[in-house]
Please model this.
Amino acid sequence: MTVEFEVNGRAVTVDAPLHWLLADVLRNQLDLTGVHLACEYGVCGACTVLMDGEPVRSCLTLAMQAAGHQITTVEGLAPEGQLNPVQQAFINHHALQCGFCTPGFVVTASYLLNQQQEMTREQIREALSGNLCRCTGYQHIVDAVEDALRQSQAAGTTLAKTIEDK
Amino acid sequence: MGYIGQRMTRVEDERLVTGKGRYVSDITPPGTLHLAIVRSLHAHAKITGLDFAAAKNLAGVVGVYGPQDLEPIMRRLPQGMPDPRLRAQMPTPLAIDRVHYVGEPVAVVVAENRYIAEDAAQLVEVGYEPLLPVIDPVASEHASPIHQGSDSNLAAEVRYTVGSGSAALSAADQVVEVTLRLGRVVGHPMEPRGIVAIFDPDTEGLLVYAGTQGVHGFRHSLAAMLQMPDNRIRVVAPDTGGGFGLKTRIYAEDVLVTYLAVQLKRPIKWAGDRREEFMSTNQERDQVHYAKIGVNSNGQIVAVVDHFFQDQGAYTPSGIIVPDTTAICIMGPYRVPHFEAVGKVVYTNKVSVGPYRGAGRPQGTFVMERLLDHAADALGMDRVEIRRRNLLTPDQLPYQNGISARGDSMTLPYGEYQKTMDQVVATINYDTFRDPVQRGDWKFGVGVANYLEMSGGFGFEGAKMRLLADGRIEIATGSSSQGQGHRTAIAQVAADRLNLPFEAFVVVEGDTDAIERGIGTFGSRTMMMTGNATAQAASGFRKRLLEYAAQLFEAAPEDLHWDRGHITVTGVPAHSLSLAGLARHASGQNVTLEFASYFEAAGPAFGMGTHGVVVAVNVKTWAIEIRDYRICHDGGVLVNPLLAEGQTIGGTVQGIGTALYESLIIDPDSGQPLNATFLDYLLPAADEMPDFEVTEVEYPDPTNPEGFKGVAEGGVMPPMAAICAAVENALRPWRVKIDTLPVTPTDLFYQVSRGGIQ
Model:
C-alpha cells in the first residue's frame, strides 16, 4: 500500500504493508536511522519524532497514520552541517554518552523549545520523563535543556526587542 | 600546555546528536536476511518435538533451523574466565533436548525481513514436557541438579580468609548478624544486543558488526565456534549503545547469525528487542548474604564474616567473576583484622548471571556498609562515628588487606579517607538530618556510605600510532567505547605527551583490523590501560619520526628538535618539516611511520569515596524521594573531569535503580519472569532523579606511570547502602529494617503495618 507524507521538509511516497510501523519505514525505507528502537512499545522514547510539530512515538504509529502529515526526525532539526540550540547544548553539557537515547531526547527537547515557555528545572525533568537514558543519570541532559531554553528565550527577547526598537 | 585535566567536550558528539551515529541495527547491507529466535516458554523442560511446517510455509521465510540442522556448531560456547574452582556449564547455541530458562534459544528462523521472521518464529511448534524448575538459590544447593550428568547445583565455592576468620568473632564485645538480599537486576543498555554478518565466498572472509566491548576476544570465540581461523574474521564494533559489562562475550545469537551467513552466503542480521534483553542477556546482583560483624564496645571491627549465595542462573558465561569480586570487595576502605567470606554459586533455572556495572563491587559494598550501620545501632553509636573509627588512616596506607586477589595481596594506596567522608558529612547536613525531621507528611532521613573502587589491573592493552597523509596521527586501540568518550580522552593524553594540538589526533577503536591485539573495555580499565599505552607509544612514535626526519635531513636525530609538530634541525631553521610534510616524504618513499606500544597492568587501582543522601518518606503513601545527594570521589589523575563526572552520576543512578526500583520478579513455581517489560520493571527516569553534587579528589594511582584510575564503577557501589540507611533513619520510630533490595513503598507499608504505627 502506498502512503504519502512529508519528512524533514521533503515529500515522500512509500510503499509498505499496512501493519508496518512508522519507525521501521523511516529507518529502513527512508534511511533515517537516527530514529532509534530500544523498547518498541512506547515506553523509552528513543524513537520519538515530531508529527506536525507534536512529539509521537514512531514505534506505536503505523506508517499509514503519517499520511498527509509532516514528520520531523532528529536528522531534520537543523540544516545539514548545522546544529539546533538543543543539539549544541547537548554537546556543551556532555548530555550524552552512548548516544542511543539521544535522538529521542533531542527531539523531545526541541519540541519544548518550540513551545517558547519558561520552565523550571522540575518541569523540565517531568517533561523529559517519557525518555529513558541508561548512561547519563539525566543531570547533564537537564542542564543542556535548561541552557537551550534560556538561550532561546534570550534570543527571542532580543529579537522582539530589536523589532520594537525599529 | 595541558589537555589532561580539561573539561573538554567530546569529538564523538556531533554525529550522535544529529542522528548520524551508526549502530549495529542501522547496518543493513543489500540482500540482508533477518533472523529471529524461537525461545523457550518454560524455565525447565524436556523438548519433545519441533515442528517447522507452518513456519516454513509462510511467504518470505528462507529457512527454519533446529539443533539437528545446525549440527556443526552445536558445541558448547567457550567459557569466559575459566576458573579451577568452577564446575562450568555452558550452553550450546540452541538448546538440545532440554531447556534451562525461559528465553533459551530453541530454534531459529531466517526470512526476508524482520516482520516475517518474527511472525514465523511464532508459528514454530515446540513440544515441551515441563520439569520442576529450581528457583530459590538457597534451596538449590541441595535440590535436584538442573543439568544432566551433574551431581549438584553447586557450581563453585569462593572462599577467602584473613587472620583467624570466623573464629575471631568470639573475641568481640558484640556480634551483629544480618540477612541481606539483592534483587535480580537487568542491565539494559538502551541499545539491545544485535549482530550483522557478511560472508564473502570469494575470499572466505567473514565481516561481523557487533556491539561488543572487546572485538578481539569476540573474534576468537567466534572462530572457535565456527572452526575458522581468527584471521578470516574481522569484527567491527561500530557505535555501541551502552554495554555495562553485558556485551563482553559472545552469545548464542552471535554464533547462529555468523554460521548461517556463511552457509546461506547472504548477509544476516539479528536485531534483538527489549523483550529479548529481559530474557536472554546476562543478569546480575541476585545474592543472599548471611553476614556477621564482631565489634568492640568502642566500635572497632574485630571480624567480618559473610556466607552468601550467588543465584547464578543456568550457565556460567563469565565464570565466577561476580561472586569472587563480591567477596574481595567486602572489606572496602576499612581495617578488618579478621575476615571470612564463603560464597556458594548455585545453578537455578533463570537467565545466566554475568558482569553488570560493578560486577560484585556493589554487592560487597552493600554488605559491609549495612553491617556497620547495624553494628552502630547495636552499640548505640552514631553511624558515621563507627566508620570514622574503622576507616584506614593515612599513616596506615599503603595497606595490604590480606586478600589475595589474582595473585598478590590487595594493596590500598595512599588516600585521606576520613577527609573524604567528612566532606560529604558536612555538605549533606548530616548533623541536621540524623535526628528525626518531619515536614507535613514527609519524614526525612540521612544515610552515608563509603566504598573502595577497584579498577583495571589485569592484562594488557595497546595503542598504535600512525602518521596519516594529512599530518594527523591515528591512534588505534583494541579497547572500544560504548559511550565512555575514549576518542576524546585518549586524544587528550596523546596531545599532551606529544605536545601537539588535540585536533591532530584521530582515535580508531573497535576494529580487529586496526590493531593486532586487544582485550577490551570492562572493569573500568581503558584509561589505565590504553591511556598509559598511549603515553608509552608517544615517546616511541616521536623517536621514530625524528629518526626518519634525520635521514631526510642527513642529520643526526639528536640534532633535531620537535616543536608542536614541526621537526627542525637545530640552528638551521630552513631545514624544517611539518608532520604533513614528513608524511608526504614517507608516502613518496613507501615508508609507513607507525609505532605500537602495549601496556601491561601491574595491579588494580583503588580509589575511596563517599556518598551521602537525604531521603524523604511520605507516611501516607510510603513514597521515597531523594532530596539531596552528595558524592566525593577519587578518580586518580583525571584526564577529563567532565567525562568522569558523567561516569560518576550515571553509575550512581544505576545504583539508585538497584536500590529503589529494579528487580526481575521470577514466579517461584513456574520460573516465569513476571515483570519483563519497561512498564513493569522500572528504570530510573528524569523526574525521580535528583541533582548530584560531585566533588573530585585526585590521589594518583601508584601502579601506572600516568596515575590514572578507573572511574566508571565507583558511582554504582554505595547508593544501595546509603539509601537503605537513610530510609531506616527517616522511619526510626517504626524500627523498620531495610535489608532487602529494592526498597519499595509496598515493603515499607507492610513493615510498618506489622510493627504498628507508634
User: Anything to note?
Assistant: The radius of gyration of chain B is 27 Å. The domain at 460-600 of chain B is CATH 3.30.365.10 (Aldehyde Oxidoreductase; domain 4).
